[in-house]
What we know:
By secondary structure, this protein is α/β, with parallel strands linked by helices.
Amino acid sequence: MTVVFQEKIIYMPYMPPFARSEKIADYAASCRPVEWREEKIRSIDGTRISLCVGKLPDTHGVPAQKQVCTMIALSYRGYWKSAGKASQRGIELDAQAMLDFVASAYPHAMLVLWGQSMGAGIASTAAAHHIERSIAPPIAGLIMETPFMSIESMLFALYPQKWLPYRYLSPFLRSHWDSGVALRRIAEAGKQPPRVLLMPATRDEVVPPEEIEALEQRCKDLSLEYDRKNVLGALHTEATSRREGQQAVAEFVRKLAAP
């Protein structure tokens, strides 16, 4: 049953409850002054997916010469208002479609991909594919928040006991999200690789510290430029809800944007 229903276990698009019925308007007040809108696009295979696009309004008084940040959040297939069912192959197509949308709408942007937890694997895989396709705009930065090396490595980390069956299920995985492989693809693409921000939470109750150490070592082995910021005292989902994590992301982006 674990093998058959692995997508439901890995992706859990039904959590939190009622997530698929939430509306952008429900969070408008807490997001000010950033204004968000829904953008509907088609994935590479035609699946209807939704994006959340957020930016400062034109009336916010931002000088024309100032750089303005636009954030685009991808709702994977099976999540929120996106159709379909989540799978690695499908989400890879969704990420490619989102990046094609960005290339069309913001061709001169400084592009930074950001993923949290499993999303870090999705972001790194998307970055590798984008770089290999030589699509503009190039990716300047990759933020990996509370990341792990791969789903397979997490199976071994979470279930080290040899008498438990879970560690032996890795040959049957349909989703891998292997950031180690993605980073290698990025390094070997022959293009200017993005700078990487590794941001673990020091009290992460889900991802063991060995995972971030392995990712950092992979960056070193591949000669990728990277920064590491440990968010002290944070649990798995708290890294960027804390001021320290927010400042780390802001400083990373400022560094990328510096002439």
